[in-house]
Amino acid sequence: MWNISADAVQAQLERILASPEFVKGPKLGQFLSYVVGQTLSGHPDRIKQYTIAVEGLGYGKRFDPTSNTIVRILAGRLRRALELYYVNQGAEDPIRIGIPKGRYVPFFSDNQSVTATFNGSGSTSTVPVGAPYESTEPTIGVFEFENLNNHEECDSIARGLTAEILTSLTRFAGLSVVGPLVQTKAQSIDYRKLRSEYGLTFALRGWIRSYGSIIRITTDLVEAPTGSSPWGRTFEFDLEKTSLFEIEDEVTSRVSGVIADGMGIIFRKLRTETYQDHIKLSDITLAVLAYNNAWATQIPQDWETANSAVSQALAGSPEDALLLALQSNIYYGDVLYGLNMVADSLSRMEELAIRAVALDPDLQIAQYNLVVQHAFFGRAEQCVEVARKVVAMNPNHARILAGCAVATTSVGAYELGRELIERAKQLNPQYPGWYFFIDYVIDFHNEQYEQAWADARTIHVEGLLWHPIFRAAVLGKLGRVDEAKPYVEELLQIIPDFPQRAREYIRRLFVTDEHVDMIWDGLVKAGIQG
Length: 530
Fold this sequence. Notes:
Strand 3 (117-118) and strand 4 (124-125) form a beta hairpin. The strands form 3 sheets. Strands 5, 6, 7, 8, 9 and 10 form a 6-stranded mixed sheet that branches. Strands 1-2 form a two-stranded antiparallel ribbon. A two-stranded antiparallel ribbon has the order 3-4. The chain starts with 5 loop residues before the first helix and ends with a helix. Helix content is 55%, strand content 10%. It folds into 3 domains: 1-117; 127-278, Rossmann fold (3-Layer(aba) Sandwich); 283-526, Serine Threonine Protein Phosphatase 5, Tetratricopeptide repeat (Alpha Horseshoe), CATH 1.25.40. 47% of the residues are buried. The chain is globular, with a radius of gyration of 25 Å. It is α/β, with parallel strands linked by helices and 530 residues long.
C-alpha cells in the first residue's frame, strides 16, 4: 500500500494553488486550503458548511448555511477546478487531492492509481466496498485508454484521447467527472469498489490497436452499480488519411455527445425506475432528469413535472446557478408552448437567466437561456452572437446545439441553424422529432411545401399549439383544405382565441415578420378566419 505523508500532501496543495485556475479564483484556494489543513491536522470532523464559511472563507459568525448556499456552490466549482487541473497541468503530479461528491472532507490518493487515501495519520486506508454512497449527481470515471499493441504511436493517441474526453465531459452541467483512472492489467476492475471510493455511477473504458496504417478504437460505458454495459462503439481510421488530431476530435465528440448529452445514455438510464433502485439521487439531479425528459418528450404533463421538480430543488438551494437556469428555461417553455403553468413566467424568465449567468458565467445552459430569449424578443443580432459563444463553450452538447439551431433559424440565420442541427444529430443519433423544425422553416421559406409537409409529420409535439400550426399552415399552402380542417379544429380547441391573437402566438416561435406572414398566410388558406 502506498503511504502518503502530510508533507507530500502539503507540497501537492501548493502546486495546485499556484496553477492559473486557482490563482484567478482565490476563494477556491481558500476553500481547498482550509479543508486540507483541517484534515492534515487530524480534525476532519470540524469540516462543515459553517466552519468552511466562517473560518475558511472569512464570512462573519452570523453566517447561516440554511439560507446561504455559497459553500455548496463553491464546492461544486472546486470539484470541477480540481478535475480540470488533473486533466491538464496536474496529470503527472504524484498525489491527487479531491473533494468527494456530497462531502467536504478531501481525499488524497496516488495520482497513478485509484486505491490509496489519507486517513490523517500518515498511513493509507481504503473505503470498504460496501460503504454506502448517496449520489448528488451522476459521476463518471474515465479510465486511461489502453494500447493493446504497445506501438508508440498508439500510446500518444491513448494519452491524447483520455485527456480530450475528460476535458469534454467536464463541460456538461449536472455531471461529475473523475479521472484518469488506471487499471492494473493483472486485475479485473471492481466497479462496486470504485463506486464506494469515488461515487461512480458510470465508468468509461477504451482500447486502441493497430494493423498497419489502420487504427481501431473501442469504447465501452459501464454501469458501476451493476457492471453491465449499456453502450459501446468501435471507430476505425486510416492513419495515412487522417491526422491524430482529427482522430481525437472525432472520437471525443461522438463519445461525449452520445453519453453525456441531456438526452444521452447516462441521463436516459438514470430516468428509469429500475436504475434508481441502485442509487439515491439528490433533488438537484432529479430536477435535471425531469427537465431533460420534458425537452425530449415535449409532453405538457412532463413540463409540469419538470417545473415541480425544479421548484422543489430550488427551495433547498435557492442560489444554485444550474437550478435557476433550468427554471428560466422552463418558464421560457411555458410561454413558448402556452402551457400557463406559472402566471408570471414571461416577466420572470429573463430575470432568472441573468441571475444564473451572474452566479456562474461559465455555465453553458445559463448562457443558452440568453440565446433563446434574445430570439423570443426579436433581438436577432444578439441571438446569433451569443449562440456562437454558447456553442464554443461545449460544442459536444447536442441538445443545446439543437436549441441554438432553433433560435438562430427562427431569426433568419438559416445557414448557422442548419450547421448546428446537423452537428447535433451526428453527436447524438437518439434525437427527438422537434429537431426537424429547422428543415421545416427553411423548406417553408423556400416554398418547398411538399418537403415542408414531410418535415411537419416528423415533429411530434401533440397537445401543444405548434402541432396543429405546423401541419395546418403547410397544408393551406398546398391547397389541401380538407386535410387541414382537423388541425384547424385542434388549434382552436387548444387556443380558443387564436384568431384574435394569431400573430402574437405565431411570433413566439417564428419571430420575424417574414416568418409570421408566411405561417399566417398558410393558416388563412387552411380556413382560419382572422
